[in-house]
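Hi all, posting the design record for the shared folder.

TITLE: backbone redesign
STEP: 1 of 1
STRUCTURE INPUT:
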């Protein structure tokens, strides 16, 4: 039997441990900003600091077992493989990448879902990120949206949850994923539901703009994985609808985006309530100074894995055409573009401002184009309606601000939306 299976194989053996998970106290851990040092925590020349774990019950986070075929790879083969898949790594004792799902030795309940999804091989980020994450160490992942990064952190999360004591009444989640937008949070939860189903792991999504009731009920029933946007999660914490005392696996997804959106104070507040020896996985598409600074404070002796170039933002699978036009030419250019590409498929137009979004949509509609808009000033009900009209092809043109961009761009990558237009500023 795989060592991952302990939780599901003999639940009773966890009953005693459940009662003394020991994360007592009600107010959390004070600051879990792990160091105020200005030196890099992921500089491999620097020894890791000692964390203050007084009163905290140890938990299992290292599930890594190297398969014999991975162990047999020479250093040269490893380097060639990384080069071929554009993988760059940093950190101490970096594990070798895995070339196949079989090498990962995931438990059966995870393998079943991978087979069902029809995946052939791990993506680059998975091949290097999985062994790193399963070692229980902190991880910085720089990878594009569409690279398979969600499963790069979710499958190890599922293994992690299955090895922890069951939730007791009043316990909060074991895995917390912070995401910048509701759209991204929902997509993450869809993957969590799909891949967590066979081991009966429950997850919920906590985001603003919708009634709290159903979210509160989910939290109170007990869920192992919570995927949340920062503002609504703080709301839930302050109203004591959940707590973070059981969180041992923390993911910050699209950290660059969260900082762009001004979530840094909320992120700090949330992270300060999580035990300092948690495993933290920090994901970003880009690596600007502010993102690096936050990583230094939240992460402990991390690995870093970069797929492609560090400043890569766009997915290479998408061909991009850039037209530079003057303000006065923009609308005519857009209409010309629509006339050329409008063939019944869906077209997404990103804009800089909500006002611009509304104005262009109005103008397009007046000119007979089936357009609707989606942005942060619209109510959640309207956003849902617009998205469903667009999805059903009833309104094949949708204009959006970039707040919605990442979540929507994801839909293009999975082939759900065939076209992305150029931004109209
Ligand atoms: P993400 O980068 O996490 O947004 O993933 C983009 C899409 O790739 C999602 O639809 C995933 O289900 C899919 N995906 C994840 N891993 C693999 C894989 N190993 N092979 C094929 N598709 C995958």
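Okay, here is what came back for every position:
SEQUENCE:
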């Amino acid at each position: 039997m795989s060592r991952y299976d302990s939780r599901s194989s003999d639940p009773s053996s966890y009953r005693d441990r459940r009662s003394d998970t020991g994360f007592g106290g009600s107010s959390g851990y004070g600051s879990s900003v792990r160091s105020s040092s200005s030196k890099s925590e992921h500089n491999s020349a620097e020894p890791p600091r000692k964390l203050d774990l007084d009163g905290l019950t140890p938990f299992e986070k290292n599930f890594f077992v190297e398969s014999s075929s991975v162990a047999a790879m020479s250093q040269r083969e490893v380097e060639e493989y990384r080069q071929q898949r554009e993988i760059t790594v940093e950190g101490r004792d970096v594990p070798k990448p895995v070339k196949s799902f079989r090498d990962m030795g995931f438990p059966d309940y995870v393998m079943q879902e991978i087979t069902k999804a029809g995946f052939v091989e791990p993506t680059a980020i998975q091949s290097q990120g999985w062994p790193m994450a399963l070692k229980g160490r902190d991880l910085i992942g720089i990878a594009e949206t569409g690279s398979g990064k969600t499963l790069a952190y979710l499958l190890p999360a599922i293994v992690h949850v299955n090895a922890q004591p069951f939730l007791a009444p009043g316990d909060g989640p074991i895995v917390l994923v912070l995401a910048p937008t509701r759209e991204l949070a929902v997509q993450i939860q869809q993957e969590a539901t799909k891949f967590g189903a066979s081991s009966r792991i429950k997850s919920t999504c906590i985001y603003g703009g919708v009634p709290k009731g159903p979210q509160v009920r989910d939290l109170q029933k007990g869920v192992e994985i919570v995927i949340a946007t920062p503002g609504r999660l703080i709301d839930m914490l302050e109203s004591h609808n959940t707590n973070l005392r059981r969180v041992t696996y923390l993911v910050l997804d699209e950290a660059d985006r969260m900082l762009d959106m001004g979530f840094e104070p909320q992120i700090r507040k949330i992270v300060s309530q999580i035990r300092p020896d948690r495993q933290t996985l920090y994901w970003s598409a880009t690596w600007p100074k502010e993102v690096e600074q936050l990583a230094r404070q939240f992460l402990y002796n991390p690995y870093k894995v970069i797929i492609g170039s560090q400043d890569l933002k766009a997915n290479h699978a998408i061909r991009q055409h850039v037209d530079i036009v003057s303000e006065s030419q923009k609308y005519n250019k857009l209409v010309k573009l629509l006339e050329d590409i409008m063939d019944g498929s869906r077209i997404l137009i990103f804009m800089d401002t909500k006002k611009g979004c509304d104005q262009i949509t109005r103008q397009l509609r007046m000119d007979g184009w089936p357009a609707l808009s989606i942005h942060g000033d619209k109510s959640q009900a309207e956003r849902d309606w617009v998205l469903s009209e667009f999805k059903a092809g009833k309104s094949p043109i949708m204009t959006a601000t970039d707040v919605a961009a990442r979540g929507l761009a994801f839909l293009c990558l999975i082939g759900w939306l065939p076209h992305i237009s150029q931004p109209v500023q």
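COMMENT: The two ends are 57 Å apart (CA to CA).
Let me know if anyone wants the other runs.
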